[in-house]
Amino acid sequence: MSEPGRKDFTTKAKEEATPDSSKSTQQKAKETVTDTTDRVARGVKPDEQKSGTQAAFDKTQRTHDDQQGGASSIGDKVKGTLGVGQKD
């Protein structure tokens, strides 16, 4: 089970398993918005403050994002803006 305010694991798995070619434009747009929202939420809360399952899932997603061109930088930008995780 995912944390409050996060995309549910089963929803994410279903979205990944469904080919884009069989999704409507509305479905693709919704997934883009919810994925971005989830990335922001993932970046705001440090892994140490997450459940073990959520932390492991987030690490996997960050690795995937990095391999796809660094989409995780959204979370880094949010952290930078909020001053989360910065070392003095």
UniProtKB/TrEMBL annotation:
Compositional bias annotation for Basic and acidic residues: 1-17, 28-50
InterPro entries recorded: HSP9_HSP12
Region Disordered, annotated ranges: 1-88
Gene3D superfamilies linked: 6.10.280.100
Pfam families in the record: HSP9_HSP12
Protein name: Chaperone/heat shock protein Hsp12
